[in-house]
Design goal:
This protein is mainly alpha-helical. It folds into 2 domains: 101 residues, Multidrug-efflux Transporter Regulator, Chain: A, Domain 2 (Orthogonal Bundle), CATH 1.10.1660; 132 residues, Multidrug-efflux Transporter Regulator, Chain: A, Domain 2. The chain contains 10 helices and 4 strands. A hairpin with a 5-residue loop joins β3 and β4. α2 packs antiparallel against α6 and α3 packs across α4. The radius of gyration is 22 Å and the shape is globular.
Length: 257
Amino acid sequence: MSGFAAASPAPRPSGPGRDRAGSDAKVLNIGQVLDRLRADFADITLSKIRYLEAEGLVEPARTSANYRKYSADDVARLRYVLHAQRERFLPLRVIKEELASLDRGDTPVHRPGPRAVPPHPAPTGLDAILGVERVRMSRRELLADVGLDEDELVELERHGLVAPIAGGGYYDSDALLVARTVALLAGHGVQARHLRAARTVADREAGLIEAATAPLRGQRGGDNAGRQAETADELAALLVRLHAALLRSRLAAGRSS
């Protein structure tokens, strides 16, 4: 593997070839690597780091007891992968090709990726409330990112909480956000089967929004679809705020009773 400058969130190659035994005096264990990466990638997990290793994107050295030892180059390589996923929306296959070019000492062609989103104004509506990441990931990538196993994801799908994009077999931003949130709830003993009511409420509110925006379909103009989507997003954001306020009010009433 070639060396990488370890300082920036988007590392640049520092030259082909690397003597693993002598170029990096300090090595880190996987927990220390996780701590370093979290400063720039808040959602990184141990499972994701292990997954990237399993996919051949990073190859840490091993101790005689088979513990991983990460060099500064390894950490920078992970930063390169995570940055390419988040900022350029590249699939791992393409990132791996870029890394191979860097390892050979070549300059890879900088590809923005098919999902790159151009600069835009500050998010509004649901995007502002949820902090949405625009992603498109495979099933394996979703499992690694969230730290779920296959059976847990199947359970989420069985209860209608997560589903792949129709016809594509990939998962989008909403699926990722739901999976992450359910994983956090599981840490408090809340299981997927307990959340069926939340899915039912979402279905009902979606029907309410569709009914409210239906008149826009019949209006004349060249941007009816855009206006309908914008109105639907605004209504959804208002319903999320209403739900949060009602929930907080209900909890406060329960504590005071």
